[in-house]
């Protein structure tokens, strides 16, 4: 159609509309037909690169299973590598919101970066689904009707392991982690349950994220001689820590326990150093869940890779988005209806079905797992339907 005809037609339409003969196309209707722009803000470089890729794979797998569309809208991705760098986070998220005009933000892995995303999402009332970062505040003090999390709070796996070790009768524990929200909060959750159960955290060791110079701290652990060590590390850092811990000869003398990220997506690289380790997490490799079986098959077929907890969280982020969109006919602007649908939903996750709390964090079983033949085998449920306390959330 040439430009003149287009203009003439548009003019005609507006005359008809003005005369009340043709209803003007509503914003919602226009939006429902447009592509759905998903802004993926994830780490594609650095110690968490593999985690970012797994999340994207999981998210895409769900969308592909729906024929590439959610509520009739074709899904289009805009991607930013956030490098797990909090100092660049506000600029990165603003690019997606203000330059690219995304309909929904999906991200990220690193808690510090996620806090910046939550702040911008709150200020601009943009829909945000967090597919990993556990920063307690995202569903605590920063909680909002337009912010959802498909993963966990840092408190959750830590708290579950605190209960496990206290019940086991372990008395003196040293902790070691990166000094930032994820490490601090995992240790805090652990300590809360462990000390309630009669244990004592005798030493808290830290190093800056994403450093992996563990030697001096391992020497300190050897000298302290705790009954056990509790840790949070993930990604490339977790690979090195588990290997260094074993190489220092500590694995046999001082049992190592962790939030399950320590051994998730990392087992091939960790090899024998990880064998036998116990961790707590909302996913395991041997769950007898029908949804998990189909998910694992499809994931392996599509990506020629085994899925991990991050892939599950990406998949479930897409499920949350689909549930909300279904209730709003694809209109992300209808925030209240979107939230009500997600709040009422039972999400059919590979981890087992879960619901979201009022603060929009998963209420979920935390499994006790043990590494056996390069798998995180489920040993049992450490804590059933664990609900993050959502401290500071007013919603
Ligand atoms: C976080 O920064 O919240 C974080 C990062 C990696 C994980 C888990 C939590 O595996």
The gist of it:
This protein has 395 residues and is an alpha/beta fold. 44% of the residues lie in helices and 21% in strands. The strands form two sheets. Strands 7, 8, 9, 10, 11, 12, 13 and 14 form an eight-stranded mixed beta sheet that branches. A six-stranded mixed beta sheet has the order 2-3-1-4-5-6, sandwiched between helices.
Topology:
Blueprint: H1 3-18, H2 27-33, E1 36-42, H3 49-65, E2 69-70, E3 73-81, H4 86-99, E4 104-106, H5 111-124, E5 127-130, E6 147-149, H6 155-168, E7 172-178, H7 181-196, E8 200-207, H8 215-224, E9 228-232, H9 235-247, H10 250-253, E10 256-259, H11 267-270, E11 278-281, H12 290-303, H13 309-327, H14 335-344, E12 355-356, E13 362-372, E14 375-386
Parallel strand pairs: 1-3, 1-4, 4-5, 5-6, 7-8, 7-9, 9-10, 10-11
Antiparallel strand pairs: 2-3, 11-13, 12-13, 13-14
Helix pairs in contact: 3-13, 4-5, 6-7, 13-14
This protein binds P-hydroxybenzoic acid.
P-hydroxybenzoic acid binds next to loops.
């Amino acid at each position: 159609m040439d430009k003149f005809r287009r203009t003439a037609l548009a003019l005609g339409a507006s005359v008809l509309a003005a005369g009340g003969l043709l209803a003007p196309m509503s914003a919602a209707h226009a939006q429902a037909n447009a592509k759905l722009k998903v802004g993926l803000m994830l780490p594609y470089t650095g110690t968490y690169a593999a985690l970012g890729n797994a999340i994207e794979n999981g998210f895409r797998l769900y969308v592909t299973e729906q024929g590439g569309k959610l509520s009739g809208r074709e899904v289009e991705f805009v991607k930013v590598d956030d490098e797990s760098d909090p100092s660049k986070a506000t600029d990165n998220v603003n690019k997606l919101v203000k330059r690219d005009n995304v309909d929904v933000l999906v991200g990220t892995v690193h808690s510090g970066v996620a806090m910046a995303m939550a702040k911008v999402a709150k200020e601009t009332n943009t829909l945000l689904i967090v597919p990993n970062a556990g920063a307690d505040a995202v569903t605590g003090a920063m909680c909002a009707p337009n912010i959802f999390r498909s993963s966990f709070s840092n408190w959750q796996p830590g708290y579950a392991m605190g209960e496990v070790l206290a019940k086991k009768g372990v008395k003196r524990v040293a902790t070691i982690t990166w000094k930032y929200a994820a490490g601090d909060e995992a240790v805090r959750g652990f300590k809360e349950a462990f000390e309630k159960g009669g244990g004592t955290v005798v030493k808290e060791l830290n190093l800056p994220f994403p450093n992996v110079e563990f030697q001096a701290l391992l020497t300190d652990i050897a000298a302290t001689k705790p009954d056990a060590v509790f840790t949070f590390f993930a990604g490339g850092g977790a690979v090195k820590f588990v290997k260094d811990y074993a190489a220092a000869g500590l694995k046999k003398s001082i049992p190592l326990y962790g939030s399950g990220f320590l051994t998730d997506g990392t087992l091939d690289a960790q090899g024998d150093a990880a064998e036998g380790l116990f961790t707590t997490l909302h996913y395991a490799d041997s769950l007898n869940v029908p949804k998990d079986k189909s998910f694992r098959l499809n994931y392996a077929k599509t990506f020629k890779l085994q899925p991990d907890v991050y892939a599950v969280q990406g998949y479930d982020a897409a499920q949350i988005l689909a549930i909300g969109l279904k209730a709003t006919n694809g209109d992300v602007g209808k925030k209240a209806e979107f939230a009500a649908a997600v709040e009422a939903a039972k999400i059919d996750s590979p981890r087992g079905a879960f619901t979201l709390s009022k603060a929009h964090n998963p209420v979920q079983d935390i499994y006790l797992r043990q590494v056996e033949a390069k798998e995180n085998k489920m040993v049992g449920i450490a804590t059933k339907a664990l609900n993050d306390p959502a401290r500071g959330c007013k919603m």
